[in-house]
Amino acid sequence: MPLRFAAPGTPSLPLHLIASDDLETAFSRLDAGQLAWARAQGFKAAAGTVCVLPGANGIAGVLAGLGSAKERRRERFTLGGIRGKLPAGTYHLDTELTGEALEEQVLGWLLSGYIFDKYAKKSAPEAMLLAPDGVDAARFEAIAAGEVLTRDLINTPANDMGPAELEAAVRELAAAHRAEVSVVTGEALLDENFPMIHAVGRASPRAPRLMDLRWGHAGPTLTLVGKGVCFDTGGLNLKPGASMGLMKKDMGGAATVLGLAKMIMALDLPLQLRVLIPAVENAVGGSAFRPQDILTSRKGLTVEINNTDAEGRLVLADALALADETPADLLISMATLTGAARVAVGPDLAPYFATEPSDAASLAAAGTKVADPVWQLPYWEPYEAMIEPGIADLDNAPSGGMAGAITAALFLRRFVTATPRYMHFDIYGWNPSAKPARPKGGAGQGARAILEALPTLLKL
């Protein structure tokens, strides 16, 4: 299995990880024949380069370049990019790396085994790795499996990943970990007081729904809320074609919290987990909600609709209101919410907002530790007036185009009044180009940082 380590005791070849600024020291450990071969091949340990060492019975080992310290700061998971260049076989690492640096490379190796082959046959890497001493193999395999779930859900096109299919994925995950799931679907959303989820999804023949997964019976409480807009046309404020092309990924928040939930449950963390996913398709039709409509939310706040393409915050608002009725020790929402966030920080960073400065600091430290970069944006109080239209309590799309990620976060925070510790992520959920261990396509962002921070955040 490419997303698992090789079985302990499997015969293996040495894989020498060499930094370019440590090249001569590494060369001094080779025998004369191997040294001559490496020099003849021009191996200089540039990032991602490989030199196969010949031996009496074929391959004696492989030299793999990690590049310079500057290159390693600029690019994560170098070993992930090396894996596909190796001859088939099982390897063990020969490296001076320890701690976080070693763990980053090992995770990169595992994640590089990911392929999305649901619609076209693809070959997985054939090289396998023995888990290095000191690396918790089961933990890293669980983390990789959670990331795989996120990527698969995002990569699946909307014709095969609508609200019903997303519900099926939630139920499958719950069954695997003995979690409980309840779902409110279609017109029942009105009966159960989820009016904005219903309004956004009512124009589609694929019924909107709210999924509620619960796991664990002891320990601190954690609630995750993920935006599950399975496709976003923009509604009556129809997106141009260029902007609609990637909208299968608009359920990336839901996919990411499900990946994180899978990690938490697989690792059997001592907490009580709740996952809420409002799943809709924002379609164009005669029953679609309209610009200038005023919707009344579950919270009782009224919302003037000034753009039907700002629908994600509407479905999240009802789900957050439900979460806030039973306050958790920590509440986190994740969504592919605004283009403004991508303009601000690009596709690599996961911007987040936090009501507690200490939580923000813990998350930032955790993201650095596990090579899952996050970046804090502010709940900037002076912008509160921008989301108040006058005719209703809130405006879902303030005019002017300024501070879009911040005003969206402020909007969501209005629905969290009883829960003191709330964090919101405005992620991209997509790699626009292939990088080591991160193929082009769906991507989890922030989940590993949260997982790493949970012991501090929840005092586990």
Provide structural commentary.
By secondary structure, the protein is α/β, with parallel strands linked by helices. The chain folds into two domains: 13-125, Leucine Aminopeptidase, subunit E, domain 1, CATH 3.40.220; 143-457, Aminopeptidase (3-Layer(aba) Sandwich), CATH 3.40.630.10. It has 16 helices and 19 strands. It has helices at residues 23-27, 32-40, 69-74, 78-83, 99-111, 137-155, 163-176, 188-191, 195-201, 241-244, 252-266, 312-325, 339-345, 357-369, 404-413, 447-457; strands at residues 13-19, 50-55, 58-67, 89-94, 127-129, 180-185, 209-215, 221-226, 228-232, 272-282, 294-296, 302-304, 330-335, 350-354, 374-376, 394-395, 422-426, 430-431, 441-442. Strands 6, 7, 8, 9, 10, 13, 14, 15 and 17 form a nine-stranded mixed sheet that branches. Strands 2-3-1-4-5 form a five-stranded mixed sheet. Strand 4 (89-94), helix 5 (99-111) and strand 5 (127-129) form a beta-alpha-beta unit. One of its GO terms (molecular function) is manganese ion binding. Residues 307-314 form the Cytosol aminopeptidase domain. This is Leucyl aminopeptidase. Belongs to the peptidase M17 family.
Structural class: alpha/beta
Overall domain count: 2
The number of strands is 19
- What is the mean pLDDT? 96
- The CATH homologous superfamily of the largest domain is called Zn peptidases
Q: Level of helix content? A: 25-40%
For the termini, the CA-CA separation is 32 Å
Radius of gyration: 24 Å
Please state the overall shape, judged from the principal axes of the Cα atoms: elongated
CATH class of the largest domain: Alpha Beta
Strand content: 15-25%
CATH T-level topology of the largest domain: Aminopeptidase
Level-2 CATH architecture of the largest domain: 3-Layer(aba) Sandwich
Total helical segments: 16
Low-confidence stretches: none
Task: Characterize the largest beta sheet: strand count, sense, and whether it forms a barrel.
Answer: 9 strands, mixed
GO molecular function, one term: manganese ion binding
Protein name: Leucyl aminopeptidase
Family: Belongs to the peptidase M17 family.
Domain Cytosol aminopeptidase: 307-314
